[in-house]
Design brief:
Blueprint (H helix, E strand, L loop, with lengths): L21 E7 L10 H16 L3 E9 L2 E8 L5 H18 L12 E4 L3 H17 L12 E3 L7
Antiparallel strand pairs: 1-3, 1-4, 2-3, 2-5
């Protein structure tokens, strides 16, 4: 079978999931549709990530839900994999979002992941995540963005 996205499989090369490792995950909406422009929609993703944390599947360090994608900074726990985490997030949220009126498909196929190789690199990932709504000129300060979760210590303003 010939893929219409010839480099898609290259994204999976070298993908490695290990408990305790820290990752920055990025998941985009189908055709980059801006569906997360209100609290009701964004809360579906935020609450799903919090649930994964509560269920001890991830240690949730930060998440930002942008209009057409989200970034999640987390550590894997309890022998789960990135694929399982993303499958759970995308599947659960897609059902909820369709129930709220979003036309399927909700998510783009695949996701981007970055495994942090050091604490400092992971801190840089979290700073990147927090700065996303500021770079997009949605707010002047990250802490003012309503669709973001991070521990208070991460904010430097």
């Amino acid at each position: 079978m010939h893929s219409t996205k010839p480099h898609a499989s290259a994204l999976r090369l070298g993908r490695f999931s290990a408990p305790g490792n820290c990752y920055l995950l990025t998941v985009s909406t189908h055709q980059r549709e801006a569906i997360f422009t209100d609290k009701l929609m964004a809360d579906v993703v935020l609450n799903a990530a919090r649930w994964l944390h509560t269920m001890h599947r991830i240690r949730l360090d930060a998440i930002v839900v942008m209009p057409d994608h989200f970034h999640l900074a987390c550590a894997l726990i309890n022998c789960t994999t990135l694929a399982k985490i993303v499958h759970t997030l995308k599947g659960f949220t897609a059902h909820k979002l369709v129930d709220l009126g979003v036309t399927p498909p909700v998510w783009q196929a695949g996701y981007h992941d970055h495994a942090a190789r050091s604490d400092e690199e992971y801190f840089d990932c979290i700073r990147y995540l927090l700065d996303n709504p500021v770079r997009a000129e949605l707010v002047d300060r990250a802490r003012d963005y309503p669709f973001l979760y991070a521990h208070e210590d991460w904010f430097n303003d």
